[in-house]
Design goal:
Low-confidence stretches: none
Distance between the termini: 67 Å
Shape: elongated
Largest sheet: 6 strands, parallel
CATH topology of the largest domain: Rossmann fold
Order of helices and strands: HHHHEHEEEHEHEEHEHEHEHEEHEE
Helix content: 40-55%
Number of strands: 14
CATH architecture of the largest domain: 3-Layer(aba) Sandwich
Length: 336
Amino acid sequence: MVTIYDIAKKVGCASSTVSKALNNSKEISAKRKEEILAVAKEMGYVPNSSARRLATKNSWSIGVLFSEDLNIGLEHHFFGGVLQAFKTYVEALGYEVTFVSKKVGSQPLTYLEWCKYKNIDGVLILTVDVNDENLNELTQSGIPIVTVDNGLINVPTIISDNYQGTRMALEYLMLKGAKKIAHIAGPLRSYASTERLKGYKNVLSNADIPIDEKLIVEAHNFDFNSGKKALEELISQAEDMPDAIYAASDDIALGAIVGLKEMGYKVPEDVSVIGFDNIELTRYTSPSLTTVSQNKVTIGTEAAKHLIAIINKESTTDPGIIKRVPVELIIRESTK
């Protein structure tokens, strides 16, 4: 196996200089670094992980905590896109990404025990059950943590601007003449869902439109079937048929559209529908879905930048929402 001493001998420099070059130190010139890296590649050098950890005091490993509590799989366009952007950024810096688990082999562990066992440098919480008894232990441990789309836990959070997106959706519906706008909220154990519901009520109040609680229902999960069931509940309890529906996610919106069609209503002729996320499928459905687009690449990249900054002690770990990422209204066929 090629070592830094072999590289140093071939280049004609000290092994410490080779080590600095391999660790991207600013203490040596760019030209010297380039020369050493070229020789290392030519010789087939592969860094020893144990030596690297000793030299940098990092494991160069980041954990991702992904809970299925909200029935959102990694194939979901939004969360999958966020994770991909995050992974791309940290891997370019030399980190590996691994999923946090509750066991090693057959040995059950808490989240914190698993992170300590793996010597994780930091954690990205992608989705999580906020009532999980192991969560508080992890967030209070001092391990660098960042989360996305969730302001319910006491860690730095990157999130879409849910208020901006809700305002854009409702103002567009009102501009097109909608007077009775219903809201199918996402599961209210989700922070994003609660923000979108609050935004819905604020926008209507500011427009001097009375809040009709019978035009508000909660979908129990962020999925198609939950959206369809919520639509059925909405129609059964509403005194008058709404002329527009603002759904908290695209999957919920698509379920609502199918439910409306099965009841004999046309979209958008009878009812306009707007979703939230801009998943890939929405441009191909019939009708194609008007939706609020989240910038998953920016969210994932910003989460990665902030987590790395915390790991390197270049940023504080102040809890709360540290960045709201702007959204965009995508107008398609499901609205008049």
